[in-house]
From TrEMBL:
Protein name (database record): Aromatic amino acid aminotransferase
GO molecular function: identical protein binding; L-aspartate:2-oxoglutarate aminotransferase activity; L-tyrosine-2-oxoglutarate transaminase activity; pyridoxal phosphate binding
Ranges for domain Aminotransferase class I/classII large: 27-388
Organism listed in the record: Photobacterium halotolerans
InterPro entries for this protein: Aminotransferase_I/II_large, Asp_trans, PyrdxlP-dep_Trfase, PyrdxlP-dep_Trfase_major, PyrdxlP-dep_Trfase_small
């Protein structure tokens, strides 16, 4: 049966990780996959998570199934983090999923179930898996203009002009904060304009928020999402604990449906559970149990928030440091890096220049020009600045 298959296309980001491992040069630098790293280049277990894990080890009595929706304490905590003080709070329902990836797929399946001829509008560019996941669920995908390659910021005018054409059969997928891959976020005014368009033209807003706390802070990073939630009848959210709890491999996330009533939201939740049954059935428990433990304990929550703030500050320091290092080498061509948010920046380097960075300098960045700021180390900023200037000459 399977002989007729052609070879799979490698994941452009995950395959970089393997190439990096195989590189024997001591000066090599991994700016590829979106994983947070500390100043030693490590991705440690967060203290709050570690303490929750110890508690869980002592108190957990069984590994019996939890249920289709996963941990309901976790689900409630996810809604609290994102929409607590909005009018949507009482008309929303959440399902624990295997990462935000699981949420993206479940929500895509839900859209297909409700309306098979849905078109999902995705920013150009966007997270590598957005298009494949939507298409795998049977949905059509259309790109909207987003990144201005000249200014390295969002081209709001072009984006809003295109989104004004989206109608009732359309879904507009937005990054909640810390846009992957560009690092360029829409402004609060853009969120307001998109909310108004959704209400005027009837498209469904879909927010994917995988980096809450990595931009301007936990609350600030949800401000756009909250404005939407407050002002539209219906919207969907995919959220992730991979980055802000450092739970990557534990596959921890949630799908949230906001409707005009709690009853409607719960109906959608029920249909997601039925879809999950036809797929992976139930999400893995461990990561969600850790998050629920942290967020239901004031002391662990305080520890987690301060760790998250520290990570956020490190990213900002590195952004400022890299910009300065390039300036110290006589150029202001990379000043935009300081203005970007979160873990990533699209540098504007071409595929050829990215290959040159890798071959000549041992610097691994994604082919679309994206670098992971968390992969930088203070003592290597000058090396990177020189390399960037060398390949862009
Ligand atoms: N959405 C975006 C925008 C991402 O960058 C990622 C990164 O991994 C995901 C979703 C998937 O996250 P998860 O690990 O929770 O599946
Ligand atoms: O964009 C990133 O680097 C992260 C991690 O297929 C990731 O979101 C990368 C590739 C992939 C899934 C997740």
């Amino acid at each position: 049966m399977f002989k007729q298959l052609t070879e799979a296309q490698p994941d452009p980001i995950l395959s970089l990780t393997q190439m990096f491992r195989d590189d024997t040069r001591s000066e090599k630098m991994d700016l590829g996959i979106g994983v947070y790293r500390n100043s030693h280049g490590e991705t440690p277990i967060m203290q709050a998570v570690f303490q929750a894990e110890q508690r869980l080890l002592e108190t957990q009595k069984t590994k019996a199934y939890v249920g289709l929706a996963g941990d309901e304490v976790f689900n409630q905590a996810m809604m609290d983090l994102l929409i607590k003080d909005t009018s949507a709070y009482g008309r929303a329902a959440a399902v624990q999923t295997p990462g935000a990836s699981g949420a993206l797929r479940m929500l895509a399946d839900l859209m297909y179930l409700a309306q098979p001829d849905t078109t999902v509008w995705i920013s150009n560019p966007s997270y590598v898996n957005h298009k494949p996941v939507m298409e795998a669920a049977g949905l059509k995908v259309k790109l909207y203009p987003y990144f201005d390659t000249a200014t390295k910021q969002v081209n709001s005018e072009a984006m809003l002009a295109e989104l004004a054409k989206a109608g009732p059969k359309d879904v507009v997928l937005l990054h909640g904060c810390c846009h992957n891959p560009t690092g360029a976020d829409i402004s609060f005014d853009d969120w307001k304009a998109i909310t108004a368009l959704a209400n005027k033209n009837g498209f469904l807003p879909f927010v994917d928020i995988a980096y809450q706390g990595f931009g301007d802070g936990l609350e600030q990073d949800a401000a756009g999402l909250r404005h939407l939630a407050d002002n539209v009848e219906e919207m969907i959210v995919a959220t992730s604990c991979s980055k802000n709890f450092g739970l990557y491999r534990e596959r921890t996330g949630a799908a949230i449906v906001i409707s005009d009533s709690l009853k409607e939201a719960q109906k959608s939740k029920g249909r997601i559970l039925q879809l999950a049954r036809a797929s992976y059935t139930m999400p893995p428990d461990h990561g969600a149990a850790l998050v629920a433990t942290v967020l239901n304990d004031a002391s662990l929550t305080a520890t987690w928030k301060s760790e998250l703030t520290e990570m956020n500050q490190r990213l900002r320091r590195l952004r400022a440091g890299l910009t300065q290092a390039v300036r110290d080498n006589g150029s202001d061509a990379f000043d935009f890096i300081e203005k970007h948010k979160g873990m990533f920046s699209v540098t504007g380097l071409s595929q050829e220049q990215i290959i040159q960075l890798r071959n000549e300098f041992g610097i691994y960045a994604v082919g679309d020009g994206r670098i992971n700021i968390a992969g930088l180390q203070e003592q290597k900023l000058d090396y990177l600045a020189r390399a960037l200037l060398s390949v862009s000459r």
